[in-house]
Amino acid sequence: MSELINKKVVIIGSGPAGLVCALSCCQNGIEPSDMLIIERESEIGGTLNQCIHSGFGKSYLDEVVTGTELASMLSDGIRQLEIEYITDSTVLSVDKQKRIRVVSPKYGYCTIKAESIVLAMGCREKTKGALQIGGTRPAGVFSAGAVQRIVNIKGYMPGKRTVVLGSGDLAMIVARRLVLEGGRVVCVCEPKPYAEGSDENIKECLDDFDIPLYCSHSVTRILGKGRIEAVEISHVDKRGKIVKGTAKRVKCDSFVYQCGLVPENEIIKDTGIRLDTRTRGAYVNQYFETNVRGIFTCGNAVRIHDLVDYIVEEAQVVGSAVKRYLDNKTEKPERVIRIKNGERILYSVPQHIDVYDDIEDCVIYFRVNGKYKNLLITVKKDGEVIYSREKGSMSWLETGKIQLTRELAEKIGDAKEIVICASEKEDGANIDNNGEDKE
Ligand SMILES: Cc1cc2nc3c(=O)[nH]c(=O)nc-3n(C[C@H](O)[C@H](O)[C@H](O)COP(=O)(O)OP(=O)(O)OC[C@H]3O[C@@H](n4cnc5c(N)ncnc54)[C@H](O)[C@@H]3O)c2cc1C
Predict the structure, then answer these.
(1) Model confidence, pTM
(2) Is 296 helix (H, G, I), strand (E, B) or coil?
(3) pLDDT, tens digit (0-9, with 9 covering 90-100), for 15-54
(4) Ligand 1 atom closest to 266 (CA)
(5) Considering only CA atoms, which residue is closest to atom 38 of ligand 1?
(6) Which residues are within 8 A (CB) of 160 and not within 5 positions of it... i.e. 6 or more apart?
(7) Domains in the chain, CATH or no CATH each
(8) Ligand 1 pocket: which residues have CB below 6 Å?
């Protein structure tokens, strides 16, 4: 091991979460020389670097830019402030004592001792194994994120004739990119009876490019020796079961699948940080601090976000919380309020509120467990509704927000627990609910 480096703040990951958090730390008075950002890729910017499409920064910048533009704005800010960052550097592990083991071209294999750590490692794609597709294992099978990366960053095409499985926004954006680069997308298959992504992307990425979308269809076999030659596509019922006798062979030279994202938290298994089985990220308080004092987390490492705007909000909160922690390490909360997930709530973040002098203004983010038309969001204390808001239609793909205002804080009072619930108003028919709470 080459050397021991000491830093006040170490941020792991340089996507929008890590970079905005670094900028916020400086705005809150932390010296740039006391900070270090560690990134395993050769450029800072994270996932934004492969998102050459527009749709980023709406509330942060007051204008919509491409992912790459947002990445370069944030990176310029980091360079202007002279915040140190190391690239091509991978964090191998973090422990309770806030020691970070890193392999980097600049420092070799070294240990960095931090006073405070921000975990901003983003997420990774689930692998094809999760799909359990039969057939052979030829070349030419890619995850959607990998294709986005090799096409947009490396400049290669995965094939000329592609079948896509999954209709989330990422899959649709990738399908369009393949067509724009001269390839043909034979079809996008979606096992659910409806598309997963936004209506805007169905129009702009599929309809406008004549890419057929087959809902209630899945890829059930991959065929080919050495290189993929075809896939088998079958009709599936509402429960995802293959309808016998419907299989059709479709010729292709590449197959792209999107089967979900999971927060990237493997490096923290020795820290004792408690993970939420719903979000797969850490349990956090309203400052995105984990149960290990001084270790914070933000971005897709906490939960999978639909929009960068929410990541920016969180990262700014973390920046000021890190400063507060450094100035007052022995501060302990007077009490804790647990936030429980009631009916139709998939998860909520933070999972608890640490009350110091008073309950401070903060935001509770949540997702529902299905796709609903007419929702009423409530907060309950001891079974009594203390907050309610009509939300209209909402699906599990979107983030909902509850602003914990002074007025709501007064109603919460000295409660130990509050429950977030979503109920359907009479006239709102349930569209689908992922198999939970079926009517
Ligand atoms: C195809 C696609 C389209 C999208 N479209 C939009 C959109 O239109 N509008 C919008 O607002 N949002 C969009 N998003 C969402 C948004 O881009 C992401 O949610 C956001 O970039 C995640 O930010 P992050 O900082 O949490 O993670 P990332 O950007 O993924 O950054 C995490 C970084 O941590 C690094 N890292 C991980 N582990 C380690 C380690 N052990 N050591 C060192 N470094 C490590 C990674 O290399 C990575 O650079 C889109 C996302 C995708 C994939």
Answers:
(1) 0.92
(2) strand
(3) 999 999 999 999 999 999 999 999 999 999 999 999 999 9
(4) 41
(5) 121
(6) 183, 184, 253, 254
(7) 4-124+262-330 (3.50.50.60), 127-259 (3.50.50.60), 339-432 (2.60.40)
(8) 12-18, 38-41, 46-48, 51, 55-56, 67, 90-91, 120-122, 145, 148, 169-170, 173, 264, 267, 299-300, 305, 307-309, 311
